[in-house]
Design a protein that fits this description.
This protein is of the alpha/beta class. It has one domain (12-327): TIM Barrel. The chain is 53% helix and 14% strand. The chain is built from 18 helices and eight strands. It has helices at 2-8, 12-18, 34-44, 51-57, 63-74, 80-95, 108-114, 119-137, 153-169, 191-199, 214-222, 238-247, 255-260, 272-277, 289-292, 296-306, 311-323, 329-341, and strands spanning 21-27, 99-106, 140-148, 173-179, 203-208, 227-230, 251-253, 282-284. An eight-stranded parallel sheet has the order 1-2-3-4-5-6-7-8, with helices on both faces. The radius of gyration is 19 Å and the shape is globular.
């Protein structure tokens, strides 16, 4: 009874903020807050944005207008130094939420396709931001090189080849992934490219089952994805649920993102609690926080309050996030120890 009384008196938000955790599904370009956008605008624009004007850039009504909003934000990245700024600010914001480790997607596919900036210069810049952020905020960061699946296999092969080169130069480059339109870039088409990436020592992630059916998640599993982003529609296939549970394939869930993009019609319909209860290896993530109005701490609070995950279950989700990371075994054990020792 004393234990229950103690738990009842806990400030859940403060406890969840302090809970050591990892963020595994976060897009660097999608982490840019309105405040950071103003910072960039002051440096780059003849008439800098006000904070109110910056906030308006993030407004959208449907998925197509969300993409336009995202484009409007990323177009304000004029120089490699801007990438250093957003990397450093991202780590500062994550650390304030109790995040001890992050693995962020960097959209090399977009950099190549639109020929905006030199990839090597951008990579050097985000590494400067990473090193400063890790030193100042006590947080670690690994990079996942993201290709845009609907740009075609040839473009994606170019991105993955570059990822293999970058991995040799930067130990912080750990893996690859494919985002973009699932319908126009089916995961099964990437089987050979994923095999090549694995042979080159890259870890494999895949966005799947966000906007298309469970066949997309099956395809991600079949091409060897070690982690699957979203996996929302896996809930429609009992056999798939069984396979994901048996193999303990980590799923990078993004509850608010799924709601805001319209991929999930209502919060009560989201399968996060079902997945947990059926023994799937789930992690909680934020995707593009300022665009969806929810950072990782907000996601943890939402899951705790709406889906009635206990604080001990939230600790389990935090441990999952560390276990599912691409960190070294030594660093994983150290962080898992932090999660286990975290008290009330």
């Amino acid at each position: 009874m004393a234990r229950k009384t103690q738990l009842d008196s806990i400030d859940a938000e403060a406890w969840l903020r302090g809970l050591p955790k990892a963020e595994l599904h976060l897009h660097l370009e999608g982490s840019i807050t309105p405040e950071t956008l103003v910072e960039l605008s002051r440096k780059n624009d003849p008439q800098p944005l006000t904070l109110e004007a910056a906030k308006q850039v993030y407004t959208y009504t449907d998925f197509p207008s969300f993409l336009m909003s995202f484009k409007a934000v990323t177009e304000r990245l004029h120089t490699p130094d801007d990438y250093e700024t957003i990397t450093y600010n991202m780590l500062r914001d994550l650390a304030a939420q109790g995040v001890r480790h992050a693995e962020a997607y960097i959209s090399v596919g977009i950099l190549y396709y639109f020929k905006r900036l030199d990839v090597d210069a951008v990579m050097a810049a985000i590494e400067r931001g990473r090193e400063r952020g890790e030193r100042d905020f006590g947080i670690s960061l690994l990079w996942i090189i993201d290709a845009v699946r609907h740009f075609g296999l040839e473009e994606c092969a170019r991105v993955f080849k570059k990822a293999a080169e970058l991995k040799q130069q930067y130990p912080s480059v750990v893996g690859i992934g494919i985002g973009g339109d699932e319908a126009r870039g089916p995961a099964q088409d990437f089987r050979e490219l994923y095999a090549e990436c694995k042979a080159n020592g890259l870890r494999l992630t895949c966005h799947a089952g966000e906007s298309t059916g469970p066949q997309s998640v099956w395809a991600a599993v079949n091409i060897g994805a070690e982690r699957i982003g979203h996996a929302l529609t896996a809930a429609q296939d009992e056999d798939l649920i069984g396979v994901l549970a048996e193999r303990q394939v980590p799923l990078e869930l993004n509850v608010t993102s799924n709601l805001r993009t319209g991929c999930c019609v209502a919060l009560a319909e989201h399968p996060v609690k079902r997945y947990f209860e059926e023994g799937l290896m789930i992690t909680i993530n934020s995707d593009d926080p300022p665009f969806f109005g929810a950072n990782l701490l907000d996601e943890y609070l939402l899951v705790h309050k709406f889906f009635e995950f206990s604080l001990e279950q939230m600790r389990e989700l935090a441990a999952n996030s560390v276990e599912a990371s691409f960190l070294s075994p030594e660093r994983k054990l150290a962080l898992l120890g932090e999660v286990e020792r975290y008290g009330y």
